[in-house]
Amino acid sequence: MSSYLLSRVSLNCRRLPRYFFNSTKLNPPGFTLIRIGRQFSAAAESNKVAEGSNTTTAAPPPGAADAVHNELNKELLEENKKLTENVKKMKDKYLLALAESENVRMRMNKQIQDAKLFSIQGFCRDLFEVADILTKATESVPKEELEMNQHLKDLFEGLSMTEIQLQKVFNKHAIEQIIPKEGDKFDPYLHEAMFEVSCEGKEAGTVATLTKLGYKLHNRTVRPAVVGVYKAM
Fold it and tell me: Which family is annotated (predicted)?
């Protein structure tokens, strides 16, 4: 703007008559215009400086950046602490759920295994009755009659073979007999006391006599042995 004004003033000065500049009473109009242009240019420059000073942002006070940094660092530390606690809680919950699911899986596997092993308990109890009948049948035959009666001897041998074969089947399926002896300590998990016997010199709470055999299936008592027990005198 100022350069344009100065160029216009110079052009106007060239167009004025020469005598106009030789007059000592009047100020040359060209010089006056030049002076006005310079004043206008100075005023414009001062306005620019004033506007620049108004738009310039005030400098922050000393230590303000450190305070902001410390505050931000404090917030980040608090957020990190919260996140760490949340991660720990979630990890504990995950481990607890994992352990619980593992326990459930083990219990289910054991139940399935037990169901496979002991699913024949009812059938076994029925066969135990058959085994008892065969045992009583073979024990009731007099030994002297076997030599005199060939038919009775053949029948006895057939029953004995059947009993032996039945015991083989029991052993094949992990079925064991419970045969307590006299003087054995009474075990409520293996024995069932039907009566008590008084006898001097015998320890109380021990087996006196065996009435019926017991059986175990995979080391689990399916039918306890029926016994008589000595009582204290």
Answer: Belongs to the GrpE family.
